[in-house]
Write a structure and sequence with these properties.
Elements (H helix, E strand, L loop, with lengths): L1 E6 L7 H15 L3 E6 L26 H10 L2 E7 L7 H8 L2 H10 L11 E8 L9 H13 L2 E9 L12 H16 L4
Parallel strand pairs: 1-2, 1-3, 3-4, 4-5
C-alpha cells in the first residue's frame, strides 16, 4: 500500500501540516509506504487550459508538476491536507489540483464512458482545517476534492473536516483530534483495494 500525503498549506508547521503528519505516521505504522509532496516547496503554475494534454493525457508545461505526476499515479491512497482560505484551498494546493486536468484527459482517453463509472486507481481523502465555524466551510473544498480524485481515477472517501482551529499549531492543544488523524492514516493503510 502506497500512501501519498499532499501538504497544501503555504505555512510550515500549521494545523493542516500537523494533522497530515499524524495521519502519515499512522499509515506508516500500519505498514504503508509513505511519500509526501509539499505544495509550498514546489513551483507549479496554474493550468493554462492550452489543450496540450487533450490527445496524450500528458501535461506539456515543464515545471515541478512533472515530478508530482508519477507520485500521484503510483499512490493507492492520497491524503490532501489544506487550511481554509476564504472557504477554499490555498493557491499552492489549488495549482496542483488544477494541473490534474492532464490526468482527467488521460482518463477520458483510456476509459469508455461506461468504464468511467468505476474507479480503478485507489482512494482519496481530505483533511480540511478552518478557524471559523461556518456551516458551509467545507462545501467547496469537498467538491474540489471529489473531482480532483475523480480525475485521478480514485474514489473520494471523505476524511477529517475540522472547524474552530485558529492559530498556528492550535491542534496541538487537541490530542484527541491528532489521534483521530493518526487513526485515519492507520485505517487508510489497512484498507485493501477492492
Amino acid at each position: 500500500m502506497k500512501v501519498l500525503g499532499i501538504y497544501g498549506s503555504p505555512r510550515k508547521g500549521g494545523n493542516s501540516d500537523l494533522l497530515l503528519d499524524a495521519a502519515l505516521k499512522g499509515a506508516a505504522e500500519a505498514g504503508a509506504e509513505v511519500k509526501s509532496v509539499y505544495c509550498r516547496k514546489v513551483t507549479v503554475g496554474g493550468c493554462l487550459n492550452c489543450g496540450g494534454c487533450d490527445k496524450t493525457g500528458e501535461c506539456v508545461v515543464n515545471d515541478d508538476m512533472q515530478s508530482i505526476y508519477p507520485l500521484l499515479d503510483e499512490a493507492d491512497a492520497i491524503i490532501l491536507s489544506i487550511p481554509m482560505f476564504f472557504y477554499g484551498a490555498p493557491a499552492q494546493a489549488k495549482a496542483v489540483v488544477d494541473r490534474c486536468q492532464a490526468r482527467w484527459s488521460k482518463r477520458m482517453l483510456a476509459k469508455t464512458k461506461e468504464q468511467r463509472k468505476s474507479y480503478d486507481s485507489g482512494r482519496g481523502y481530505l483533511i480540511g482545517v478552518g478557524a471559523t465555524k461556518g456551516e458551509n466551510l467545507f462545501v467547496g473544498v469537498e467538491l474540489m476534492a471529489k473531482y480532483f480524485y475523480d480525475a485521478l481515477d480514485m474514489t473520494y472517501e471523505g476524511g477529517l473536516l475540522l472547524r474552530g482551529l485558529e492559530g498556528k499549531g492550535a491542534v496541538s492543544d487537541h490530542p484527541e483530534t491528532l489521534k483521530q488523524a493518526h487513526e485515519l492514516g492507520r485505517k487508510i493503510a489497512s484498507r485493501r483495494l477492492s
